[in-house]
Amino acid sequence: MVIAFSGGVDSTALAHALARQRRQFASLRLIHIDHGLQSASVEWGRHCQRVARQLRLSVQVLKARIRNASGESPEAAAREARYALLAQAMQPGEVLVTAQHRDDQVETLLLQLFRGAGVAGLAAMPPIASFGPGRIARPLLDARRADIEKYARQHRLKWIEDPSNELVRFDRNFLRHRVLPVIRARWKGVDEAVARSARHMADAAGLLEGVAGRDLDACADGAALNVASLRALTLPRRRNALRAFILRAGLEAPSALKLREMSGALLAARVDAQPEVDWPGGMLRRRGGRLQLEVVSQQTTAITKTTASKSWRWAHEREFLLNAGGSLKLIDDAAGPVDLDQLPAVLHLRTRRGGESLRPGARARTQSLKKLMQAAKLSVEERARLPLVYAAQRLVAAGDRWIDASIAANDKSRRRARLLWRRAG
Question: Domain coordinates of the chain in residue numbers?
Answer without folding.
Answer: 2-191, 222-295, 305-422
